[in-house]
């Protein structure tokens, strides 16, 4: 039994439109829409201002879709009301980021700068060595942050690269330290 799927999704100030398996949610931070799986049924309880997701049977697939659909709808409501934010840090001598039009240009130790196109619906702001990615769609914010990080992942010897804010990178000792016992033949 899906415990998450059974919970109703509170709407708050968000406006919802249900039509032919398409759920459209609108709020102060933007508009999002989701095509719901045909087996799932989404209803609007106008009195309590909440969305309720129901499933047709207790098959394994239906249970999984039940919880997934409810979570996606809850993320959409949270996104249009409050938005989502990811912060990345650029660390390394000479490493920098800048915005040119609708592209994030990263100079991170390669011969040429790397351009990452900024999707519509996302806002990217720079502050010293930090990149702030904000938007209403949780999946889009996370995917863009992941794509930017993938350009130059933090390396384990000096810690240079692009990392999430608060991410801990374990620094390895270098060759000189590791070979201390080998020189004496022990």
Overview of this protein structure:
- The protein is of the alpha+beta class and 186 residues long.
- It folds into two domains: 79 residues, Outer Surface Protein A, domain 3, CATH 3.90.930.12; 81 residues, Ribosomal protein L6 (Outer Surface Protein A, domain 3, Alpha-Beta Complex), CATH 3.90.930.12.
- Helices cover 24% and strands 36% of the residues.
- It has a four-stranded antiparallel β-sheet, covered by helices on one side. Strands 1-6-5 form a three-stranded antiparallel β-sheet. Strands 2-3-4 form a three-stranded antiparallel β-sheet, covered by helices on one side.
- A hairpin with a 2-residue loop joins strand 11 and strand 12.
- The longest helix is centred in the middle third of the chain and has 22 residues.
- The model has no long low-confidence stretch (mean pLDDT 90).
Mean pLDDT reading: 90
- Total individual domains: 2
Number of helices: 4
What is the end-to-end distance?
Answer: 60 Å
Q: Do you know the CATH topology of the largest domain? A: Outer Surface Protein A, domain 3
Give the structure's gist in a few sentences.
The chain is an alpha+beta fold and 186 residues long. The chain has four helices and 13 strands.
Keywords:
186 residues, alpha+beta, Outer Surface Protein A, domain 3, 2 domains, four-stranded antiparallel beta sheet, three-stranded antiparallel beta sheet, elongated
């Amino acid at each position: 039994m899906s415990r998450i799927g059974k919970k109703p999704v509170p709407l708050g100030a968000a406006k919802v439109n249900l039509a032919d398996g398409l759920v459209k949610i609108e709020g102060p931070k933007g508009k999002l829409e989701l095509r719901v799986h045909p087996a799932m049924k989404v209803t609007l309880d106008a009195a309590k201002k909440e969305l309720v997701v129901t499933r047709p049977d207790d098959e394994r697939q239906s249970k999984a879709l039940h919880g997934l659909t409810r979570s996606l709808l809850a993320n959409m409501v949270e996104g249009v009301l409050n938005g989502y934010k990811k912060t990345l840090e650029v660390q390394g001598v000479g490493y920098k980021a800048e915005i040119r039009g609708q592209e994030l240009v990263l100079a991170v130790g390669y011969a040429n700068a790397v351009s990452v196109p900024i999707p519509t619906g996302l806002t990217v702001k720079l502050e010293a060595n930090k990149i702030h990615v904000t938007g209403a769609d949780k999946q889009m914010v996370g995917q863009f942050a992941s794509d930017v990080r993938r350009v130059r992942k933090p390396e384990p010897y000096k810690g240079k690269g692009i990392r999430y804010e608060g991410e801990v990178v374990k620094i390895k000792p270098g060759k000189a330290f590791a070979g201390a016992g080998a020189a004496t033949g022990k």
